[in-house]
Amino acid sequence: MRRWTGPLVGARARLRWVHLILGGALLMPYLLLAQVVVGAAAGGVNVLASLPLTLLSYAASLPLVALTGLFGLVRPLSATAARAMTGVPGDRLADGPARSWAARRRASAWWTLHLGIGALVSGMSLAVPPMAVVLIVMPLSGTLRASVWGTYLFSAEAEPYLSPLLGAGLLAGLAAVCAGAGALLARLAPVLLGPTAADRLAAAEERAADLAVRNRLARELHDAVGHALSAVTLQAGAARRVLDSDPAFVREALAAIEETTRRTVGELDAVLGLLRDGDPARADAMPAPTLAGDLDGLLARTRAGGTVLTAEQDPGPAGDWAQLPAIASREAYRIVQEGLSNALRHGTGPITLLIRVHTTDGSRELEITMTNPPAPPPHAHDGGRPRTGGGRGLRGASERAALLGGRVEAGPHGETWRLRAVLPLGTTTAPGGGR
Fold first, then answer.
1. For residue range 254-308, what is the model confidence (pLDDT) as tens digits?
2. Which residues pair with 409 in a beta bridge?
């Protein structure tokens, strides 16, 4: 039984009926305005007293509905109601105001259909049930049987049960009409309220921008935390080995550990704050170390663990890393940091670092070259355990360079492992400037 009655009077059908009644209610201001105009044009007659004039007022109100449906905010309002009351999956409906005229016209068509059909269903819902009740109880009431309709239905030619059957048929017909109208709107909702090609493109661009921000935050976390853990592990191990024989070195290593963890906790808190707030726009305002701000400190903290690090710096004609473009200085710092982290995790000997600004074919470039002995084979490294790491740091360094139009090369180079990054800084006509 439920299989047959569910589509007509089930929970979804009832909710769609409410949606239609809402459309009828929204049509009332338009209908009242149209009745005033039609009544004035007809010589000041009462429109409600004439069925033709009432229908004419209804027809005249629909162009007004279509006109207001062109406003951009109509689509999100309609989509929210349709998503909640028609049973259409939310992902098939667009979010946000309609911006293109194609989307506005589709939203206007939906607005007109919803209000127009809703008004008809509302009128039927008000008129049919009382009429059906009267027909059902007519055989039990002498007054009703004596009325005009009762005289006709209970004439000698009519069967006594015709009136109740007609009343029940009217109720069933009303349920069928309401269910059909609700199903029609549910079918049309994705067509008229669904995202346009422009909406899909905008959503894709938004997702791409969000993914780019998340990737950047992931790189910041990987580089900052990864380097800190590598440096702290090396410094703690070196301090443990000379704990009794060289107290001065131990104090220096502990101071470096304190400074490294303090800086990393600050960076970690900034990144986690951005993730927690969910505001990608703040990512560009996130404080990040630069060559001018912390390169010497980074090198000192690396040496504090006992690592032999030879560094050569050549800022070029500017004479100061502070003259570099801020974004180039920031990304270069992270590339150097990742190179040092990689060397500390996998290398076994001294590190040589060269950072210089030079001119190639009329364009200024920042070049970073870092070499260190290659990692030992797995059977001789870390007690026979293979080294860990999935190459995310080098991939992140490549992404950082690519953002500036540069490149990163990493791999064996003769008897050493070499990391080389080249970042363009612009032409020689703008020293100290940048992209």
1. 887 887 787 777 777 776 766 665 555 554 445 578 898 888 888 888 887 778 8
2. 420
DSSP assignment of 139-165 equals GG-HHHHTSHHHHHHTSTTS-TTHHHH
Alpha helices in 194-246 (DSSP H): 197-241
In sequence order, what are the residues at sequence separation of 6 or more whose Cβ sits closer than 8 angstroms to the Cβ of residue 42? 53
- Identify whether the C-beta of residue 370 lies closer than 8 Å to the C-beta of residue 409: no
Q: What is the pLDDT of residues 58-99, one digit of tens each?
A: 999 999 999 999 998 999 999 999 999 998 888 888 888 887
Residues 220, 271: contact at Cβ < 8 Å?
yes
Residue 382: predicted pLDDT: 45
Residue spans of the domains in the chain: they are 2-195, 201-427
Tokens 């950082």 belong to 400
Q: Residue 160: what pLDDT?
A: 58
CA nearest neighbour of 65 among 100, 92, 25, 102: 25
Work out the number of other CB atoms within 10 angstroms of the CB of residue 88.
20
pLDDT digits (tens, 9 = 90+) for 109-123: 999 999 999 999 999
CATH 3.30.565.10 fits 201-427, yes or no: yes
Write down the mean pLDDT value for the chain. 80
CA distance 87 to 105: 23
Q: Phi and psi dihedrals of 35, rounded to 5?
A: -65, -40
Report the SS3 class of residue 426.
Answer: strand
Q: How far apart are CA 81 and CA 107, in angstroms?
A: 13
Three-class SS state of 419:
strand
Q: How far apart are CA 132 and CA 169, in angstroms?
A: 8
Question: Distance (Å, rounded) from C-alpha 336 to C-alpha 257?
Answer: 19
Sheet with 351-360: list strands edge to edge: 309-314, 351-360, 363-372, 416-427, 407-413
